[in-house]
Design brief:
Elements (H helix, E strand, L loop, with lengths): L19 H4 L7 H14 L2 H6 L17 E12 L6 E12 L2 E13 L5 E7 L3
Antiparallel strand pairs: 1-2, 2-3, 3-4
Length: 129
């Protein structure tokens, strides 16, 4: 993706000033920013980034992204903790995609924690009540 295009995460910034630095190795300052960068990684097919930002205790051995899913929009509904001085955080979101079969919505309450090196990592997610 061109760095001047709008970032897929929906923050309203160009990709080059938003998720690209995280995809290139910069640490996310908050759990929400990590979640948004992971959504952008799904949208852009960056499976290695998704695995590298996943907690080793819950990370799968491999990840196969479905190329027929086109992620279109992200709605962040709630953020609990996950700030620069927190150890854990949760982000509830809805991601909207197009598939060959039509519209897809994925709603999740994701959990994040700080790894030993201080970086945020995705732990797991559940369908919110």
């Amino acid at each position: 993706m061109d760095a001047t295009h709008p970032c897929p995460c929906g923050r309203g910034e160009p990709y080059g000033a938003c998720c690209l630095p995280l995809h290139d190795g910069a640490a996310a300052p908050t759990a929400e920013r990590l979640m948004r960068s992971r959504y952008s990684a799904f949208a852009l097919g960056l499976g290695d980034y998704l695995l590298s930002t996943w907690d080793p205790s819950t990370r799968p051995d491999s990840l196969e992204l479905d190329p027929t899913i086109a992620w279109r929009r992200l709605f962040v509904e709630a953020v609990e903790a996950g700030g620069p001085f927190d150890r854990e955080g949760r982000v509830t979101f809805t991601a909207v995609a197009r598939t060959p079969g039509g519209r897809l919505e994925q709603r999740e309450r994701s959990s994040f924690s700080r790894a030993e090196d201080g970086r945020w990592v995705y732990v797991d997610g559940e369908e919110p009540a």
